[in-house]
Amino acid sequence: MHIDSGRAQMRMDLVHGGRLASLKVDGRELLVTASDDPRGWGCYLMAPWAGRVRAGQFTWKEQPVQLPVNCGPHSIHGTVLQRQWSVEENSVVSSLLGPDWPWAGTVRSRLALSSDQLLWTVEVSALEEPFPVVVGWHPWFRRELSPGVVLQHDVQAKAMYVRDAAGIPTGAVSAPTAGPWDDCFRALVANPTLTWSDGFTVEVASTCDHWVVYDEPAHAVCIEPQSGPPDAFNLGGFDVASPGQPVVHSMTLRWR
Length: 256
Fold this sequence. Notes:
single chain; mainly beta; Beta-galactosidase, Chain A, domain 5
């Protein structure tokens, strides 16, 4: 699915998780557009959970739940990033949460592209009974927009989750440490920004109040708004989707 606002063009890949496969502004490609790792390119939605769930296990309404393990001994990034998505109407795509999720549900993405921003709204709906939800976005921003045009990113937060030896938050928080990071932050002072050396800037805004920053790769930086921390189903801090009461969040990319 292609959308063109004149100054900006975007392409959605419905076969590979309904992800944003390309985003160009003034001819600049902002995203990593290919990788052998399905989790390593574009900008994809993480639902109905974001980040890792420890050992793929949690308890819901006093019943144990086991998710498929797909990241070492853990479960990561939800069930829809490799599913086939369908076009519902202009700029709206959707998918079932699928058999890897214990409850019947759907996820819907609505995208609005203009000359200076992309607004991406997601809605997770329960079809039969309530279930927990954490949503997030995982954009892979290029460190170089062109040779020599390099990236600086600015994330100012008051708190960072403490990770254990498995790399998963313990629930404790601390003052942010120096990067590089593969960490979750909260209590941001301002919206994160990415600024390349030619002056082009992208601001990331969201209704979500948690932010994962992954800036260890040499070729890309990931600034990921999430509605809860990694392992939120065990730590707390998740939303609940009920029939007729979907979970709704949005991410906005603004450029100048």
